[in-house]
Design brief:
The chain is elongated and about 95 Å long. It is 61% helix and 0% strand. 8% of the residues are buried. The protein has one domain. The longest helix has 36 residues. By secondary structure, it is mostly helical. It contains 6 helices and no strands.
Length: 168
């Protein structure tokens, strides 16, 4: 009688071709996201070190932060458009105030401060999106496995409580 050795199966290895395809797609996607992340970091370092405006929009923002640094108020920047000075401020006050605060940490370099605020905002958006995706993945996984949380435990197990026959 010949005995075949027991099959040792690794938990992370896919059991079906579909699971293998899903794992391969996830690995390719992770590699692409990682590569894109490296390019993003490289570009961010280059942009943060560039001492001149990259587009037209940075100049007016620098002027608005300069008004605030000189003691001007937000009401001066966001005043009525039909009265002089005719300023167009298309960024919300929070951005300008954050840039003003960060510029005090960068030695008054409002250009670098604005770019740091924008970079921090972009990274915060990435983190928020990642958390939303993970939350949705968890919900989808719970729905597929039937694990809908502890408050629906009675419904999953069929135990609807301990009512006596008169209450039923």
């Amino acid at each position: 009688m010949s005995h075949s050795p027991p099959v040792v199966r690794r938990r992370w290895l896919p059991a079906t071709p579909l699971q293998f395809a899903e794992l391969a797609a996830a690995l390719v996607l992770a590699a692409l996201v990682g590569l894109h992340g490296l390019f993003f970091v490289r570009h961010a370092v280059q942009v943060l070190g560039y001492p001149f405006p990259l587009d037209y929009g940075e100049g007016p923002l620098l002027a608005q932060v300069a008004v605030l640094r000189a003691g001007g108020s937000l009401s001066q920047l966001y005043g009525p458009i039909d009265q002089p000075p005719h300023l167009v401020v298309n960024y919300p006050p929070v951005y300008l105030l954050c840039t003003l605060l960060v510029s005090s940490l960068t030695g008054g370099n409002a250009l670098l401060a604005g770019r740091l605020v924008s970079l921090g905002s972009a990274l915060a958006c990435v983190v928020a999106l990642g958390r939303l995706v993970e939350e949705q993945r968890t919900k989808n996984k719970e729905q597929r496995t039937g694990n809908l949380g502890t408050k629906n435990k009675e419904q999953r197990t069929g135990n609807l409580g301990t009512k006596n026959k008169e209450q039923r």
